[in-house]
Amino acid sequence: MANQASLNETNNKFCVPNTDVERQASLEIDEEKEFDYTQRSQWLRAAVLGANDGLVSTASLMMGVGAVKEDVKVMILTGFAGLVAGACSMAIGEFVSVYSQLDIEVAQKKRDLAMKIKNGETEEETQEENLPNPIQAASASALAFSVGAMVPLLAASFIKEYNVRVGVLAVAVSLALLVFGAVGAVMGKAPVTRSCLRVLIGGWLAMAVTFGLTKLIGSSALYEG
């Protein structure tokens, strides 16, 4: 019996109590739960949408024009115009949209506060930090659009051969679509594979439709002329 007690005492010295392990695991889970990933939804949505839109729309525009006019200067100028116009449009649209959402949420908070005061409850201040930020959303959207649009511009800028230029442009845009899809999924704790495939297939469809329709209409117009 003495030997058994001594053995148990020795084992206890070198073993971590299960309660400590469980407590540590519980703390890690609680810390992960404390961060609400929906807090990222506003600016993350604007950034991901802006990057994908800048990438796909600029690449589609360049490939569409390139389907009719193979001159590299025309393609680059078209892409640059698309970058500037798209970034401004995204910023203004996002600002107006989020500002409308802000007005609605502020009005609702005021109604809730008035109802609490009427019912004799303690007055609570409106939590401004939880409200949407129009300037933040607009800035993130415009910046992300510009970053996305720079990919096809840089990919096509230094290649004079038309077929090689279009091929490099398609590959660069495809890789960027995968990267943007993965980054958005990781930051939002969403499935990475599904997000990447969704973004990639959508981008391919947009470029294919733009290239095909522009080629068809442009060729018909040039033939008639």
TrEMBL record:
Chief localization class? Answer: membrane
* GO cellular component assignments: vacuolar membrane
For this UniProt record, the keywords arranged alphabetically read as follows:
Ion transport, Iron, Iron transport, Membrane, Transmembrane, Transmembrane helix, Transport, Vacuole
InterPro entries, alphabetized: Ccc1_fam
Where in the cell is the protein located? Vacuole membrane
Q: Output one GO BP term.
A: intracellular manganese ion homeostasis
Which reaction(s) does its UniProt entry say it catalyses? Fe(2+)(in) = Fe(2+)(out)
Membrane topology listed for this record: Multi-pass membrane protein
Q: Which GO terms describe its molecular function?
A: iron ion sequestering activity; iron ion transmembrane transporter activity; manganese ion transmembrane transporter activity
Q: Where are the transmembrane segments?
A: 72-92, 137-159, 166-187, 199-223
The record's comment on protein family reads: Belongs to the CCC1 family.
Name the job this protein performs: Vacuolar Fe(2+) uptake transporter.
Q: What is this protein called?
A: Vacuolar iron transporter
